[in-house]
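Customer ticket, subject: "Can you confirm the structure for Probable membrane transporter protein?"

Message body: Hello, I'm evaluating your service for our small team and ran a test protein. I'd like someone to confirm that this is what the system normally returns, since I don't have a reference to compare against.
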Amino acid sequence: MEWVILAVAALLIGLAKTSFGGLASISVAMLALAMPTKESTAAALLMLLTGDVIAVIRYRKAADWKLLRGLIPAVVPGLLLGALFLSMVDDLVLKRSIGVLLLIFVLMQLATKVMNRQPQADDDRPPHRALTVTAGVMAGFTTMAANAAGPVMAIYLQLAKVEKLRFLGTGAW
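Agent reply: Thanks for trying us out. I re-ran your input and got the following:
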């Protein structure tokens, strides 16, 4: 049964990288159910990196480097916090933490949709610095702890009102 879960998780990650970003979160949860949680994050990382390489090749010209440069200084502390968290928790706490994080991300994405934050082609203002720092730290922490930075980036790019192609290119990087 674990092999079926792993195969479905891999398929969902492939779909997530090409069109349905939220599916990667489901894959992370499935992998955490099918194997020990810390090992599942390593397995998910390999699959996500493979998908990322393909997405970067496909959308590399559409990336918004200004947005990415703004995020990088905040991602590093998030990565360090995530590494510290991983070193301190056991498998059960990590499994529950991943579940809570994924639930929070689903609720945040629903709230973003309800607020109807649609991209506007004439809105080139950068996102507020507090949003960028928060998104960067959260992306760093969640990518280290649960390979779940995708939802953080999706919410950030939605709130930044990034149009579709820039959204795909920036999210890929």
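A couple of notes from the result: DSSP finds eight helices and no strands in the chain. The two ends are 34 Å apart (CA to CA). Feel free to reply with more questions.
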